[in-house]
Write a structure and sequence with these properties.
This is Thiosulfate oxidation carrier complex protein SoxZ. It comes from Zwartia hollandica. The protein is mainly β. It has no helices and seven strands.
Length: 104
């Protein structure tokens, strides 16, 4: 399983600011190793954030996203202090990672 995501969520004036740092190599499939062999593509393809059962953010990524992607988004009217935000990504090898944090 992949390393945990670092998630921070803070609420101010009714707007929740969510910041996510994902640990992932994000290989494009175009680089070569020391022996000259192509390194296979391996990247996060989808990401979802939920509060309870409600989907509040969804994204699709591709091979052009850099290693260890950082994502920030804001939610208005979809969260408050004490709510739990659950973030899940799936990569092109169907590996998945889910982490959560409470809104502060």
């Amino acid at each position: 399983m992949a390393n945990p995501m670092r998630i921070r969520a803070t609420e101010k004036d009714g707007v929740v600011d969510v910041r996510v740092l994902m640990k992932h190599d994000m290989e494009t499939g175009q680089r070569k190793d020391a022996a000259g062999a192509t390194i296979p593509a391996w990247f996060i393809s989808t990401l979802e954030a939920k509060i309870g059962d409600k989907l509040v953010y969804s994204a699709q990524f591709g091979p052009a996203v850099s290693k260890d992607p950082y994502l920030q988004f804001k939610l208005k009217g979809s969260g408050k202090k004490g709510d739990t935000i659950v973030v899940t990504w799936v990569d092109n090898k169907n590996e998945t990672r889910t982490d959560k944090t409470d809104v502060k």
